[in-house]
Known about the structure:
Layout: E1 25-30, E2 38-43, E3 49-56, H1 61-72, H2 85-92, H3 96-108, E4 113-115, E5 122-128, H4 129-136, E6 141-145, E7 151-154, E8 157-161, E9 168-172, E10 188-192, H5 208-212, H6 216-223, E11 237-241, H7 249-259, E12 270-274, H8 288-298, E13 306-311, H9 319-331, E14 339-342, E15 346-347, H10 353-368, E16 372-376, E17 396-397, E18 405-411, E19 417-418, E20 425-431, H11 439-447, E21 459-462, E22 465-468, E23 472-476, E24 479-484, H12 486-506, H13 516-519, E25 527-528, E26 557-558, H14 560-566
Parallel strand pairs: 11-13, 11-14, 12-13, 14-16, 16-18, 18-22
Antiparallel strand pairs: 1-8, 2-6, 3-5, 3-9, 4-5, 6-7, 10-24, 15-17, 18-19, 20-21, 23-24, 25-26
Helix pairs in contact: 1-10, 2-10, 7-8, 8-12, 9-10
Pfam families: Peptidase_S8, Pro-kuma_activ
EC number: 3.4.14.10
Protein name: tripeptidyl-peptidase II
Amino acid sequence: MVLPGLLEIAVLLSLVISGCLGRDVLRKSSRDTAPSGFTFTGPAALDTPLTLKIALTQGNPSGLEDALYDVSTPSSSNYGRHLTKAEAAAYVSPTSETMSAITSWIRLNGLNATTMTPAGDWISIQTTAAQANTLFGANYNVYVHESTGKQVLRTLEYSIPEELTSHVTVVHPTIMFPKFSALSPVFSTQPKQRTQPRADAVVDPVGASCNSTVTPACLRSLYGIPITPATESHNKLGVTGYFYNWADRADLQNFLIEYRPDMSSSTTYSLETLDGGSDPQDIDEASSEADLDIEYTVGIATDVPVIFISVGESNNDGDLDGSLDTIIYLLNQDSPPQVITTSYGDWETDVDEGMAANLCNAYAQLGARGVSLMFASGDGGVSGIQPISCTTFVPEFPSGCPYITSVGGTIGTNPESGVSFSAGGFSNYWARPFYQSTVVPEYLDYLGSTYSGLYNASGRGFPDVAAQARNFEIVTGGITELASGTSCASPTFASIISLLNDELIAAGKPPLGFLNPWLYSTAAFALTDITSGNNPGCNTTGFSATAGWDPVTGLGTPVFSKLKTAAGL
């Protein structure tokens, strides 16, 4: 895709690049030092190639939000009338003034630019460290990640030319450093002795065994999930994978043989890749995270086509880049999966606010187009994704984004309880959305002055819902293990929504799309309220689950039959 009028301009004028940069510049962003784990090695070689991604100011993001809620709120006359790709993109397309300013700047500096999104709100330019330093008042250096040895180019500050200050929101990569681990989306894994399939595996009622380990049979009994095969081939469920976390088809086959003997053991998933992603079928390279996500989507959403989206690192150097490239990839698709589950995230404070806002608006575009986005809430209680040393509670990204559905974790049966690691809290970036206008103030009244000053009481609360999250039996690397984390909960909830979508589409109705306005209104009765458990962290006992919404288990766990009724089936 080419930015109109830009790539056609192979600027041949020999301009002195600093000619347009002698003007005043506005300090855009800075940080004092590189984050822990990175070591400065020296200035970047001036001729080092560098691809910069630039987010242009979006034309009408508030209009996009209005449109999203209009098609996602059951009381609206437009409920379910999802937007097309072009209609959603039109809301965030840069204005003609922005396009004129960026085009002039690119022409003057002898650059070429490529559009990255249907809206044209992200462009990329190929440059060098020397030119980037001049263009943005930066000082690109080489930093080494101590535990992996990987090198990255980053600057501790950058500026935006004065003529672009109202037209550019983010330049990346600049001051945001990558994370070279997945922040362990699986809370823990441990080996388990393999057993032969039980004769009652398909209809195993909720019993003592489900309190110790979780299988598809347990989840079906606990949440009433049907085993009737889906019928709509164009209803798809996407599973994202990062950090060399690859699923293994042999592991899936063994999983189905043991835990879904009623299904064909040849049932599998399709693969889509970007940024050099792959899915090598080597038993030694099987990932417990990817196997978990695939086995509990294929194994629960019976016969729903599952797509494993494997994101490599050829065009990025960390999780944020991978997330950005994934959303750009999905925005460019004419028919993205109707449901997407992601078990990865970041601490909100580690994501530049402009970048976070842009990504969140991209999620809104997909939601307006009828896509349900589910993210694991994280595994560190009120400390964020994982337990860290902290003095205030750490919200998680993208769970704080109001346009996605955040899934927390539970444990046990009869009744379920919030699991201790279920991340939850309140965003510092986004205000409380309208669909939480009643339930969150009720929780804050219950909380009173407890933890005053440790969290943003006016922020968007998360998670929205929850599901089982401890001791899931998986097959990975040819052996059975137990896996725990909200990485278990998100694929489970996503599978339930995919099964509902299958029935909706078969009935000639639109898919559910962005879930939250429906979950907090029409479907609230279809969730089992979880009233015990807490999520400790930051040297506190964390928030407590209680009657109504809470920042441990959200609105509660699913009851399929009631959700079906709420969906009008």
